[in-house]
């Protein structure tokens, strides 16, 4: 098990369906590339492309696409939650993801531990307004509540000029502070995921 490569899944919470360009998608893919540099196998899902029903259950019935997405979430060692900033808040799609993940509070493994123990989560946030720290606080508290462990300095964000017209995806090159933050978040996430795989949290 310890020799099995770590895996990562990015949930992209853009409001724009594919194939529309998305800054959140770009940042998620960049984070996955940084994780890949550490041997992590990753993939991304743009949630708005799927019928993720409202609710707080693992399966909201016929037509709900979340159960298949949930399987991939549970299989991944590292979750990347990428969201744009709207009115200083995370997107409604990101909120939907958190609400659906709430179902995992009642799920336990064979040792009676929460099913998301030993999993790691990091965040990617983009937008032309303030709010990144506020959003990271909400995402990380919610993810911690359901069992994820948050690595040190694992919030990666870009804030463009307030009310500006340039999006993250429009930049000629990624600002060095963002690159540095991405690489730190990726390295710390991989280190923590490997540590938790080698020494899982104990049963309660």
UniProtKB/TrEMBL annotation:
Residue ranges of domain NADPH-dependent FMN reductase-like in the record: 9-156
InterPro entries reported for this sequence: Flavoprotein-like_sf, FMN_Rdtase-like_dom
Span of the signal peptide: none
Protein name: NAD(P)H-dependent oxidoreductase
